[in-house]
Amino acid sequence: MGALFESQLFRASQGLFRGYEAGLPYDSPMNIQAGIQHALERIEATRTQYGASQKVALELAVKTRSAEECAQAARLLKDLGQPILLGHNRVQEARDTVDAIRSVEGSHVHLIGPLQSNKINQALACVDLIESLDSVALAAKIDQRLSTSLPVFIEVNVSGEDTKHGCQPADVDSVVEAVVRSEHLKLSGFMTVGLNSPVEADVRSAYALLRKIRDRIRVSYAMSKLELSMGMSNDLHWAIAEGATIVRVGTAVFGARHLG
Ligand SMILES: *Cc1c(COP(=O)(O)O)cnc(C)c1O
């Protein structure tokens, strides 16, 4: 690990703990701001460290955060000239916060958690993009409910862990076909939740697998751009090294979650 990267990590962790030191709750605006700034610095330091040439957007994973915190975070991203990306795990939480988030012009709400069939209409009413599309059946059901175009990412389980959502790598082609042949869905990228392991080689090879899937599909369908949404607070550096274009960060920006 390079010295620059280590110093960035140290500063990021300082940002994380500053709230406790100052006796402030994590949700104070100053801490969200520091958290976002540190996450952005960490992303840039990592790109330098690994010579990663792709742009990397910070998507805030906002589960359990209040509508006000979500709006605040969205405003901060906007003021920093960053893409305004907020990822929700639960449709209900997306519904509860979407009006506040939408008060910030240019904001995008993504669904990053599993989508049950009975929540599709509610989801479509409040999200701009679904990152967790993981089956042919779900693609068909979502497509049926749409009258306008919707961008989606296909979620792939590249870690092989049973507990993970996402289609198997072997099923990617059939899900891609379903999206491409659908009337309203637009394939815009791939998403995964990485292997839960401290072993760099193992975590990176799972992310590399998603990158190879993305590259292969991009070529076979002659698509110009497909995002790679991978990497979270703990391992975003390894995801960026393997080509992530979007990292989804919760804890490193907002602090530990106390609920849910
Ligand atoms: C919570 C969550 C994240 C962010 O995780 P942190 O470790 O808090 O950064 C990213 N992606 C998904 C799907 C999540 O549920």
From TrEMBL:
This is Pyridoxal phosphate homeostasis protein. PANTHER family: PROLINE SYNTHETASE CO-TRANSCRIBED BACTERIAL HOMOLOG PROTEIN, PYRIDOXAL PHOSPHATE HOMEOSTASIS PROTEIN. GO terms for molecular function: pyridoxal phosphate binding. The modification N6-(pyridoxal phosphate)lysine is found at K63. Belongs to the pyridoxal phosphate-binding protein YggS/PROSC family. Pyridoxal 5'-phosphate (PLP)-binding protein, which is involved in PLP homeostasis. It comes from Schaalia turicensis ACS-279-V-Col4. Residues 86-257 form the Alanine racemase N-terminal domain. NCBIfam families: YggS family pyridoxal phosphate-dependent enzyme (TIGR00044). The keyword Signal does not apply. Keywords: Pyridoxal phosphate. It holds the Pfam family Ala_racemase_N. Its cofactor is pyridoxal 5'-phosphate. It comes from the Bacteria.
